[in-house]
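new request in #modeling-help
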Amino acid sequence: MKRRIIVVGGGSGGTIVANRLAGHLSSEIRSQAVEVTVVNETSYQLYKPLTLYMAFGKNEESEAERPVRELLNEDLPFIQDRGVGLDLDSKELELASGSSLSYDYLVLATGSKLALGRVPGLKESSHHFYGPKGSIKLREELAEFEEGHLVVSVVGVPHMCPVAPMEFSFIADSWFRERGLRDDVKITYTFPGEEMIGKKNIVEWATPLLEERDINLESGFEVTEVDPDGEVLKSSGGEEMEFDLLVSIPPHRGDDLVTGADLGEGEWIETDKHTLEAKRAEDVYAIGDATDLSTSMAGSVAHYQSGVVAERLASQVRGEVPTARYDGKTICFIDGVDGDKATFLEFNYGEEPDIPPESKLIHWAKHSYNKAYWLTAKGLL
Ligand SMILES: Cc1cc2nc3c(=O)[nH]c(=O)nc-3n(C[C@H](O)[C@H](O)[C@H](O)COP(=O)(O)OP(=O)(O)OC[C@H]3O[C@@H](n4cnc5c(N)ncnc54)[C@H](O)[C@@H]3O)c2cc1C
């Protein structure tokens, strides 16, 4: 009997896991003993890291998108549709088009979405670089901004790429310096906790660098409301901060499919940190931003988790005991330090990251990776 594996989500994690499965199970797929189907709500995949650079005119939307069909191994069926319901007992995925798909194994790689409406006044008063439309609009604002207070505010945690707001602040600093406007632009970076990414040595590394670049750091600033008329941020501690241009990192939410299926306490899938199995359902795996794991919401995490899940599923389909385990491996580049230098963080569960000295070489490594990313999505890197 044919075994059916469905991957919901054709983003970074979804395409990598599907393509890795195509590699591990090529003979089973060719003989039609196994079918691996990818379902994604759009026909294209968005490579999100480029939206940071779009705000500064360094990348365009067209460079950040590729058809999912093109990224997938040719032996894998692709369905452009939205998963809207899950019956975890009868193992059925309901699609927005009205049809449904049955599965033996399910991989949920539905990522995260922005939820600006959760903080009063945020939508009306802030800009963001967390999607192509937002970034292009922000680019127009930055081009016209010549003086005043730029506030880069982390409003929601967890959020995608924990270091992106710091990268944005560094790049904005260089952007205004190059234009001879830096003396007229005050930059403040706020985040709600005391430790960026929950890691002590990142704060120790970043604090002097931010000071050197004259970027004010306001930790422990938890935004609860924004007054669009007065252009004021309000915090849970009763502080107020005026701004002329607000760039927010909005709250994130999980997909409705996950919430509707009751796969977690909140909107993130309760996931075993090593096996990546969903804790509340049989034969369901979860990867990437959709999980409740304490790892960063980062493409690198989705990438490493995809390899583990593909190995485990291949073993299960063959009747073997799955042994692959995820150790929390995370790699995050921090770009824009001192203009055209970068560094990176690498850590596993429970570890403080090593932070090598920032260099131009690492900056170019990040940009080379961004260009080569589509090979990663195809499972080739
Ligand atoms: C500005 C920015 C900069 C970043 N920089 C970096 C970086 O430098 N390094 C790094 O490692 N990471 C970075 N990231 C984070 C990285 O992009 C994400 O962590 C990564 O995309 C997560 O992969 P994913 O597969 O979990 O989700 P996604 O890539 O978001 O894919 C989810 C997919 O599922 C689809 N989907 C959702 N719900 C459904 C449904 N119900 N039915 C069908 N399809 C559905 C979506 O349309 C989407 O295609 C950055 C993110 C941003 C926003």
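bot summary: Residues 299-317 form the longest helix (19 residues).
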